[in-house]
Every structure is written in structure tokens, then in C-alpha cells.
Amino acid sequence: MTGVWVNTLGSVLNISAEGSQIRGSLHSSVELHPGAVCEQMPGELVGLVGQGDQPTFTMSTGWKGGSVTAWVGQCFQISGCPVLKTIWLLRSKATIEDNWKATRIGEDVFYQQKKCDVD
């Protein structure tokens, strides 16, 4: 899983996996409110990775303004190319009255930035 990954929206994920630990950064190209994600300040990632050729993993980051995002997923080999398929939760800072709308869920697919030969 170590390497540079890009999702379908252009966010760049840089991961270093050592043993069961993940460290890295995410330069997000998506933001809910203008200025919520600062391009010059990537989110610092921490997480855990399972064992095997197609390991499961979890990672999370905090954002400017108090929001946090967590991903869970698996690294699949598709036609010999690794792909990270994930589900994410984004929790925004909210008042108790707005708690009902403070968590969003979605999917992300990350592909290695280096080209992979697909048959």
C-alpha cells in the first residue's frame, strides 16, 4: 500500500505502510464549504493495515475547522493493479441542534499514481 494514490475526484493520498501502521497525508480536492480544506495544508493520516496480498485497512485525518474523516477499505488487485476501495465518514463540528446533519458517508476509489499495465 505504500505509495502515491489518486481518487476519481483528484485528491492525492500519500501512504507509508510499515508493519501494521499507516502514516501519510491527503491533499483533498473536495470541500463542503469554501476554505474548509486548505490545499497547502494536507490532512495528516494515521491508520492500521491488515495482513495479506489484499489487506483491509483503516485510516483517519483531522481538517482545519474541526472536521474529521475516517476511511475503511480493502486493497484489491484488479488485473494485477492495486486499487483501494473505501467507505468514508466525514464528521463536521456541529451544535447539538445540528447533530443530525453533521455526519456524511460516501465511497472513494484510489488508484496508484504510477501507471499500471491493465490487460
UniProtKB/TrEMBL annotation:
InterPro entries in the record: Avidin (IPR005469), Avidin-like_sf (IPR036896), Avidin/str (IPR005468), Avidin/Streptavidin-rel (IPR051764)
Swiss-Prot/TrEMBL keywords: Biotin, Secreted, Signal
Regions that span the bilayer: none
Predominant subcellular localization, coarse grouping: secreted
Localisation per UniProt entry: Secreted
Source organism, top-level taxon: Eukaryota
GO cellular component, one term: extracellular region
GO molecular function per UniProt: biotin binding
Family: Belongs to the avidin/streptavidin family.
Name by which UniProt lists this protein: Avidin
Species assigned in the record: Eleutherodactylus coqui
Source species taxonomy: Eukaryota, Metazoa, Chordata, Craniata, Vertebrata
